[in-house]
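User: hey, got a sec? need histidine kinase folded
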Amino acid sequence: MDVLDRAGQRDTVYWNFVYQPLPDADGRISGITVVATDVTEQVLARRRLEHVGQELAANYATLHTAHGASQVANEALSHSNAQLTYANQDLDNFVYAASHDLKLPVLNLAGLFDELRRGVSFTDAAEEALLVPLITQALHQLSTSLDDLAALGRAQQAAHAPAEPMMLEALVEEILHTLEPQVRAANARVSTDFAARPTLTYPRASLHTVLLNLLSNALKYADPTRPARIHCSLWLAAGEPVLWVKDNGVGFDAAGHGPELFQLFRRFHAHVEGTGVGLYLVNRLLLAKGGHLEVDSQVGAGATFRAYLGPA
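Assistant: Yep! Here you go:
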């Protein structure tokens, strides 16, 4: 019912009425006893609870819908990731197979050209002096590119090999022994610092490929005007092992190349022989383990490569 409070404002209150018969001395009903109880607070509290319940039900419905949409999105993302993984595997398998299938025809072509050189004479000596080196160089570059692509396929397969503990110092010594001719040619001195983690558990073939490419790059792009100085070390960044390879070589404009730094067949110095597969391969191997490759370099100021190896 509506009532007026002391301030003269109309207000709504709720009462609970209990009616009981009122008998007289002879037992006859002579009246009614009415007991009224103010239940306004209980009614308002119940209404508030009902309102809260409705809000909770609406929120639950919204969350349930959002959860369903999230599940659909996660399933779509997982499907896309799986397709991307399969596509990368197919690409790696294709590259590996194609490099092997093309290797034999290239070898045959090189052999036929050698036979042709021995059995046929050019009538123009100047033309012979020009064309023969060009053809020889082209065949060599093609053969080298196929070898690098085959190595890329093998390395991608090796990236899924189980991890094993390795002494970093011993691994670097093994690689430098392989690169001994390049070390001598560059008059290089290689120093190391693996005090932060002398032993590392990692797929051996992957780590060998990463170090081999970074060290051979440092030697390949040594500055001919000064002895090469290369420093290889390992540091921890938020618990993640990071390999550093720093050199005092010719360097390149790293900031100017941006995202194309680690693209396949990307090269920075035309005067140095190479196919542009090495850094692409290193970055792919690191990405497969949750890591990545970074570089700081300026022309004439050497280069510093940081290989983030992924969660330890």
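Quick note: The chain has three domains: 2-38, 83-158, 164-308. Let me know if you need anything else on histidine kinase.
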